[in-house]
Amino acid sequence: MSNPIVAGLTRLAQFEGRDSSGRFWPYASLILALAFVAMCAPFVIEVNKTFEAINSFAAEHPELTTVHRGPGQVSVQIEGSHPELTPDFGYLLTTTGLVAAGAVALLGAAVARRLHDTGRSGLWGLVPLPFLAFGIFGFRALIDSFMTDAPIMPLFAALLLNNMVYLLTLAGLVWMLGSAGTPGPNRFGPAPAAVEA
Q1: In this structure, are residues 39 and 33 in contact, taking their beta carbons and an 8 Å threshold?
Q2: Quick one: 110 exposed, middle or buried, by C-beta within 10 A (0-12, 13-18, 19+)?
Q3: Domain extent listing, the chain
Q4: Whole-angstrom distance, CA of residue 81 vs CA of residue 83
């Protein structure tokens, strides 16, 4: 199997062995690009629906709406609270969580094999995951706090700290994944070139 994408897809449950950088990165890049598109699409759809709802509300309730138009911009101010005009953040965050879980499932074995090639345990690939999960669920709780007037500063501070740690652990994982493989056999098996030959 010389195609790295086909190889990655056919080895989704194979956590043992090693993968070279040349086999890992094309597959990982495709999965991450698809995940990015799958996360962005619902946001674009939801934002468009929100703009349409605001425009409809402004047309139906001109007494509650002030519209400011300028070169290349439109600003709409609406008096009062109208939660029906806000995007469905629950749906958006659920979609984001499902896409992230799918990407993790598709990348898990490939990450483990790439880490094995550098002489490291595949368990290093798990380090960012708790911070990713807390970020997704915590952000949903933060949005819910905005809607219910609950105190938000402790949760906001926890999310800020969590996201900084997440980015650090993710950067560390990317560095490990980009490290050179160990020449020759290591404790995880023969060098990838020997496996692919």
Answers
A1: no
A2: buried
A3: 4-196
A4: 6
